[in-house]
Amino acid sequence: MKKQLFVLSLVVCVVLTISPITYAKSSVNVMKQTNDVQAVMNLQNEGLPAPGYIKGDNVPFKSRANDSSVTLGIFEFGEEVVVNYFTGNWVSVYRIETGQYGYVNKRYISFGAV
After folding, report:
1. Using CB atoms within 10 A of its CB, is residue 90 exposed (0-12), middle (13-18) or buried (19+)?
2. What's the CATH number of domain 2-110, 2.30.30.40, 3.40.640.10, 2.40.50.1070, 3.40.800.20?
3. pLDDT greater than 70 at residue 65
4. What are the backbone angles phi and psi of residue 80, rounded to the nearest 5°?
5. pTM
6. I want to staple 75 with a disulfide (CB 3.0 to 4.6 A). Which of 50, 54, 109, 110 is the partner?
């Protein structure tokens, strides 16, 4: 019985470890501002989720990926977030400061410290 429990625990750990890695392998191209030069960053190599930073003041944190959705809060310049995925002009993010999930327009996301 103990051996079966150990094997089951091991399988669960492996599945939980592989699932985010598989999710992170999705190929998404993102425009990244680097020294005033547009460079394409292929997140298939970088992986998602990934750390990101807000590059604007008073940036709305939205409940859905559109301008008319409820505003959950306001980001300040340089606030760190976790980038989950991209949908059109919007980015799904996890706001570390409040523990909330929501959306921000992709023009306000930087993948390097701002």
Report:
1. buried
2. 2.30.30.40
3. yes
4. -85, 140
5. 0.60
6. 54
